[in-house]
Fold this sequence. Notes:
The structure is a homodimer. Chain A is of the alpha/beta class. Chain A is built from 15 helices and 10 strands. A 6-stranded mixed β-sheet of chain A has the order 1-2-10-7-8-9, sandwiched between helices. A 4-stranded parallel β-sheet of chain A has the order 5-4-3-6, sandwiched between helices. In chain A, helix 6 (108-116) links the parallel strand 4 and strand 5.
Amino acid sequence: MEFILPKASLLLEARHRISSFVHHTPVMQSRLLNEISGATLYFKCENFQRMGAFKMRGAANAILSLSPDEQARGVLTHSSGNFAQALSLASKQIGVPAHIVMPQNTPAVKKAAVKDYGGRIIESGNSPQEREAKAEEIRLHTGATFVHPSNDLQVILGNSTAAQELVEDVNDLDFILAPVGGGGLIAGTALAAHALSTAKVIGAEPSGADDAYRSLRDGVIYPSENPDTICDGLRTNLGDVNFPILQNLLHKIIRVDDKDTVHAMRLIYERMKIVVEPSAAIVLAAVLMNPEIFSGKRVGLILSGGNVDVRKLSEVFSLAE
Amino acid sequence: MEFILPKASLLLEARHRISSFVHHTPVMQSRLLNEISGATLYFKCENFQRMGAFKMRGAANAILSLSPDEQARGVLTHSSGNFAQALSLASKQIGVPAHIVMPQNTPAVKKAAVKDYGGRIIESGNSPQEREAKAEEIRLHTGATFVHPSNDLQVILGNSTAAQELVEDVNDLDFILAPVGGGGLIAGTALAAHALSTAKVIGAEPSGADDAYRSLRDGVIYPSENPDTICDGLRTNLGDVNFPILQNLLHKIIRVDDKDTVHAMRLIYERMKIVVEPSAAIVLAAVLMNPEIFSGKRVGLILSGGNVDVRKLSEVFSLAE
Lengths: 321, 321
């Protein structure tokens, strides 16, 4: 199948569309992490994004791209993670109903967050099949538009706005790194970098959940089976919308062991004094473990989010000892 | 004894003197913490200062205020905490020797940090008397100038630059809060606010180490005896240099229980996504526990630092449960 690159104007439209609903997040630097890495690092702090993660960008763009009629009928997703919260908060701000299908075994704290943001929770069975069946039932009943957390072009275009801001704020980057989970952030990053810069885009993926690495190597989408990683945001599958973007625009994927991710995460806490989740710290680990690629280069790193259970941080950091 | 207010020009000179050795740190806001507090909060992020704390400001100013001869002979302090690191790093940058007297029982990690920053460590016995005797011995031997971590006018003037930046960046503050430990930061904050704004300055002090509260109430300096608080930076005594400044310029001291400090610290991690130490989070706790003072007001909060052992964070956060 032929790959058709989305027009650059679509990227810029997404940026314009969501601008009043998201923060233009700051870019941070650390003298010490530059010394350690031998590179010049520019951290794009999506942990400071509303709701604590880049997901707000894609969620807002997906909702704002709908017609007024569609908006009135609302949006729908099945997610137990950040995207459910992002879609709920974006819906509340824009003023449309959000229906969130969550498995019965979803932790209470995640349900509470969605409720806080005004999302309507519908419980489903715990299997993917039950979840999807329930979502389809709600869709037929309400007429709401289903929004996939990562395999949706408008979500990807929304996510692209983080890298758009980064290349606007920092000139002449050689590389931009983003984590690889469901593929929505890395695909948006690749689109933005290709359209607006000469930076090569590299994905960082956990060794214990390297389905994207294997999928790109073999040219077929492998499901993420029994993922084994502390990066809880990076356990999901690629999809047919983001995969061709990655096949055409991604420079490469670097696989990272959890131990190295946790070490990088500790450096970010201790040296930069900011809170990030393991799924974000993985990009710094990829840089630190590969000086032959990054030494002497100007490197943008998308810190995807900072939603971590602070009461369990000691447990996380102990993994690197 | 008559109190003589240091001239405003001294404050501005300190600011100018240290400007190339410290960061002008950012001011952060949080929509959610504004909602929770009912006030408009401006967080002065000294956790992003070099070396992770405001202490760099006072250390740099103390060294830069010396004559060339004095600088050549070096500086000297006894401290096992942040100030030892700050004096070491500032000395290294300015190019003067730093002698740091540390008790034998100082944790290895703190000694390593001082060594990393180029400080020369001299071990002493563990009692305050032994520490002071050793410092005096080194002073006589080297001719180095002793710099007290908090009871030194040049240190206080250096510390004042954090609040100077804050009132320059944010207009019309009603209050500025800073933590009260040895009195060096709160005294500098009070001087800056008095000279350059109409803001009232309030100190936040742990209930379990409320020597400054009692000292100001009774008009005598009480030593800090058996302090019982998680705020390890706030266990020290006031001194004869900073006490009169506080007597004349401080609006009041609010005492804060550790449980409330830890709760505030968790809000800062979860909502602002930044790393702070308990001694910094105490200022937010003081605001949250006293809506009758702060509701509807514009409040500056000096987040003094972010040097915390991240491997022990779970332990800290469990104190609020």
